[in-house]
Design a protein that fits this description.
Elements lengths: L1 H11 L5 H62 L7 H6 L1 H10 L3 H11 L1
Length: 118
Amino acid sequence: MFNLFVQFVFNLFSKCSICFQFFFKKKIQNIFFKTFQKTFQKKFQKKLLKTYKKKFKNVLKKNNKGKIIISKLFQYISKKPNKFINNDLLKHDKYRAVADFISGMTDRYAINIYDSVK
């Protein structure tokens, strides 16, 4: 499309001097390229934002669900820490031991314990 447009304009001014034709062709290319680039960028940015808004909502939902799972696990394990944690670790600081235990869990293990607690 761009080349056809430049060719059309170039043919219009074919009777002009060669220097003028070259200069005019470059000017049209620059103008067309800048306007095309701006419109393409705007369309691309809009499409990108729409895509990431959807993905961002899903990420927020999963993140909030993860926070809920961790807080419920912390409450459950704090009530019965001997079931999961060694007594030597519980002597110093019970809540610190529970937090360390939860932070060492894999995602799948934490979800499995959460599902069994529900």
